[in-house]
């Protein structure tokens, strides 16, 4: 899924990675899928992305073997959602490092607040991307909750500080 150029045959692993991950929607979609929100409608509504753009990105992510289609029952009708592959789950530390970097190096918009990354296993906030800064365990997607205090600003049904 090239952003501007096809770098899939490059020797540089950063260029090859950007060939797959360089589109900003890609990491946002993977973030949602890692948090268990892999249904098309949920992704569309959460990300506020057009159906056409989302459909193209999901196809590309499936082709790149970052996501797999998974069936689910929707009122007696089988529908398809998306689950993360090992390649996508390996991006958790990248996403968490981006969050940590953004907290430190980008200005917080008015009304925002600190996003805490909670290691559910020990219940403590971590300040590292790959292992918990409190207990030292490796962090996995199913073991993480992100507390977003601004969540209630965009979704009045979500209480402030919702774990997502």
Automatic annotation (TrEMBL):
<dbReference type="InterPro" id="IPR002577">
    <property type="entry name" value="HTH_HxlR"/>
</dbReference>
<dbReference type="Pfam" id="PF01638">
    <property type="entry name" value="HxlR"/>
</dbReference>
<dbReference type="InterPro" id="IPR036390">
    <property type="entry name" value="WH_DNA-bd_sf"/>
</dbReference>
<feature type="domain" description="HTH hxlR-type">
    <location>
        <begin position="12"/>
        <end position="110"/>
    </location>
</feature>
<keyword id="KW-0238">DNA-binding</keyword>
<dbReference type="InterPro" id="IPR036388">
    <property type="entry name" value="WH-like_DNA-bd_sf"/>
</dbReference>
<protein>
    <submittedName>
        <fullName>Helix-turn-helix domain-containing protein</fullName>
    </submittedName>
</protein>
<keyword id="KW-0804">Transcription</keyword>
<keyword id="KW-0805">Transcription regulation</keyword>
């Amino acid at each position: 899924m090239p952003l501007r150029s096809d770098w899939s045959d490059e020797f540089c692993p950063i260029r090859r990675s950007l060939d797959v991950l360089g589109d900003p929607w890609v990491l946002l979609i993977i973030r949602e899928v890692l948090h268990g929100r892999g249904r098309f409608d949920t992704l569309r509504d959460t990300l506020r992305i057009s159906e056409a753009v989302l459909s193209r990105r999901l196809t590309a992510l499936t082709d790149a073997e970052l996501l797999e289609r998974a069936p689910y029952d929707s009122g007696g009708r089988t529908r398809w959602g998306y689950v993360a592959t090992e390649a996508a789950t390996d991006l958790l530390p990248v996403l968490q490092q981006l969050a940590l970097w953004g907290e430190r190096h980008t200005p917080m918009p008015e009304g925002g607040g600190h996003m805490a990354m909670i290691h559910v296993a020990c219940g403590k906030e971590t300040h590292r991307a790959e292992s918990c800064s409190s207990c030292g365990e490796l962090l996995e997607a199913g073991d993480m909750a992100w507390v977003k205090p601004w969540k209630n600003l965009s979704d009045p049904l979500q209480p402030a500080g919702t774990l997502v």
